[in-house]
Amino acid sequence: MTDLQMGAVESRFADMIWQNEPITASDLAKRAGEMLGWKKTTAYTVLKRLCDKGIFQNDGGAVTSRIARADYYALQSERFVEEQFEGSLPAFLAAFTSRKSLTDQELEALRRMIDVYKED
Description:
Elements: H1 8-20, E1 23-24, H2 25-36, H3 40-52, E2 56-59, E3 62-65, H4 69-85, H5 89-97, H6 104-119
Antiparallel strand pairs: 1-3, 2-3
Helix pairs in contact: 2-3
C-alpha cells in the first residue's frame, strides 16, 4: 500500500464499493455506468488501479476492501496534518477555526474526545 491517495472520482467509485461490498466486479461496473456514466472498461481500469494501491481486492470477480473506509480517511487526515502542519493537531485546529467557528455541538464533541483520550 504505497500510494493510498485517491482523486475525487476515484473516491466516489470507492464509496460505491464500500457501501455495497462484497460486490461483483460486473455489478460494480454496471453501477459505475449508471451513477458515473462510465463505460465498463473505465470501471475495470479504475478498479485495477485501486487494487494495485492496496485499497481493494478483486478475488475471482468478488470485490472487497482491504482497508475500511473510516481507516482510509483517518490515514489521509493524519497524512494531511503531518505534511501541512508538521504533525501538530493544535496548529491544524487553529488554522481551521480561524475561518470557521465551531458550533456548541462540535465543541462538546471535541471535549468528549479529549476526555476519552485522557482516560487512555
